User: Fold this.
Amino acid sequence: MRLYTRTGDKGKTSLIGGRVDKDHLRVEAYGTLDEVNSFVGQAMTLLNDEKFQDIYAELQKIQHELFDCGGDLAIVNGKIPYKVTADMVTFLETRIDEYVKEAPPLEKFILPGGSKAAAALHVARTVTRRAERCIVSLSKEEPINEIVLQYVNRLSDYFFAVARVINARLGVKDVEYERSAIVFRDKEEEK
Assistant:
């Protein structure tokens, strides 16, 4: 098998159901998810400690799901069943809720960083937000699997929660943004 096909030499690429320019919104959206996946892989190389086995396994699962998201975004004719499901979104929500309990209480905005692994996941988080913006733009122009948008929205929150837990498990404090007001309050305290 050759890695090059020469079919893209004129600036076009194949999708599931057609060909488009390489700068098409659909290609931009799934290409940005590919960037996210690469940053997730990089972060995983920094999680070789036994205390991160759970996070490592989840990130590997997420890498597969990011491929599913990209595949769903590459479908232009809607004739192939989508792979991304609401259960994937629910899984992320469940894990976020658990990680919020494990991390120290959060009241103010924090700066991305701390440990190397947490910093890498903050990069993944911000690229995920960019992917989300691309998907929103695409959804205004063409039909997509709407659950992909939900998944990607939740994924950035997941990366934030996991980055904080990694820092907590390593004993590294998050750095609060020094001019931040108190922006996060416990919903139970407000009642």
